[in-house]
Amino acid sequence: MAGKGDVRVKISKWDTSVLGSMTPAGPLFSIKCQAVLKLHLPHCMCDDEEVLSVAHFTGGTMEIVKPLKTTASHVVVNIPNPSLVGLIRCGLSALPVQSQVLLFLCPQGNTNQKGILNVFLLPKNVPTYEVEHQQKGSTFIQTSSECTLSPGRKYGLCCELVDYNLHLKSRTFDGDFSPNFLPTFQVNLECISDAKNMNLTLLDRETNDQKVWECVVQTG
To answer: Edge-to-edge strand order for the sheet containing 52-58?
Structure first.
């Protein structure tokens, strides 16, 4: 920013009908602040050669702005008076993107029950705080979340226990940037066993169940 002031940021819904051949490459940020010097928008691209642009919506029109530079994690752009801004790229792409697996433990009505484990597969540049805000009443489980996923590809979640393994139905990773985030998988911890720990493994169904992410979760 050019000086001291308040910055208010929230995620809005993309209107893809106005993007033409372009597709979202990150959340659409609604920014309310005074004049800024530069914006640093997080991206999730793995390929450094992926060409990204910035869509700037103001007064009912969209302007496509070229970045000043692109780093390994952010796109830097000069938009003095931002309102609605977001990253876009050309066409649909199945190229891998930096992603994250977020875990939230949702309690059941009965305090003696173990609850539901909500598992989210999201691009890395979706802010964690936005998902936390929508999961009020749930406990965010901090764990190693980073992985690499490919949009349009199917992934399965395996829950490994001492006495048996639980395989959930495969889901397609769509790389969603919607402001309404829904869990990709749900695990009913009440149904698994009395095991204290559970090993979660995310499998790529299209590469002979190659492991792309795993962690250990305490269930008791």
So the answer is: 8-12, 22-32, 84-90, 52-58, 61-65
Cα distance between residue 179 and residue 17, in whole Å: 17
Question: Distance between CA atoms of 185 and 201, rounded to whole angstroms?
Answer: 12
Joined tokens for residue 32: 């309310």
- Residue identified by tokens 């790529």 is 204
Q: What is the pLDDT of residues 131-181, one digit of tens each?
A: 999 999 999 999 999 999 999 999 999 998 766 677 888 999 998 898 999
- As given in the structure block, the two tokens for residue 10 are 């929230």
Alpha-carbon span 145 to 213, nearest angstrom: 8
Tokens of 41: 């928008």
The topology (CATH level 3) of 97-218 is: Immunoglobulin-like (2.60.40)
> Looking at the chain, which residues constitute the CATH 2.60.40.2660 domain(s)?
97-218
